[in-house]
Design goal:
By secondary structure, the protein is α/β, with parallel strands linked by helices. The chain contains 7 helices and 9 strands. The radius of gyration is 16 Å and the shape is globular. GO terms for molecular function: alcohol dehydrogenase (NAD+) activity; metal ion binding. It holds the Pfam family Fe-ADH.
Length: 201
């Protein structure tokens, strides 16, 4: 994990030199596109393909569309740029990039046949935590149910956490995601399986 102000500038070196990826693929949303943050990433990787159709609480149908495009384009790495919804969608799409079928086929723990494409997570909000977990939560439209897709190979290969990205977000979003982060911290301290490790957070 790279955690420091301005660290987004290190993304190109991380992807190309450390992770040796030549054909990255960007997963984001329209809000990040309109904020100009996505442009900073696409400028680093001329010609990079972009999927910007992720909605809040990403739907299985959205992930399936992204997965189909990834299979067609055959990138060697996924960049997830956005809040928790984008990062969860990017994890799930990376999984479909190396496995057949639809994302609902992989509900549960380690149901996939092949590890997903490597993912670099670039969170743009302060509440998600998705950049350090092996879980992707996807809303199944037909069942009106949030599926959990997870497995040890679904951890991001790397995370770039740049606090400066918060400066371009609306104040209400910074406030709400900040409270989300606080809630996670309180939860880690109070749950029954709490430990000295979780207490650190």
């Amino acid at each position: 994990m790279i955690f420091e102000p301005g660290s987004l500038a290190q993304l190109k070196h991380l992807v190309a030199e450390e992770l040796k990826a030549a054909r990255p693929y960007l997963v984001t949303d329209l809000g990040i596109r309109s904020s100009g943050i996505a442009d900073r990433v696409t400028d680093m990787f001329p010609g990079i393909s972009v999927f910007d159709g992720v909605e809040p609480n990403p739907r299985n149908t959205t992930v399936d569309r992204a997965g189909e495009e990834i299979r067609r384009l055959k990138p060697d790495l996924i960049i997830g740029l956005g809040g928790g919804s984008v990062l969860d969608a990017a994890k799930a799409a990376a999984l479909l990039g190396t496995n057949p079928g639809k994302i609902e086929d992989y509900e549960g723990k380690a149901k996939y046949l092949t590890p997903p494409l490597p993912l670099v997570a670039v969170p743009t909000t302060c509440g998600t935590g998705s950049e350090v977990t092996w879980v992707s939560v996807i809303t199944h439209v037909g069942r009106k149910f949030k599926m959990s897709i997870k497995g040890p190979e679904m951890y991001p290969a790397a995370a770039v956490v740049d606090p400066d990205l918060l400066k371009s977000l609306p104040k209400d979003l910074v406030a709400s995601t900040g409270l989300d982060a606080l809630t996670h911290a309180v939860e880690a301290f109070t749950v029954k399986p709490a430990s000295p490790i979780t207490d650190l957070f």
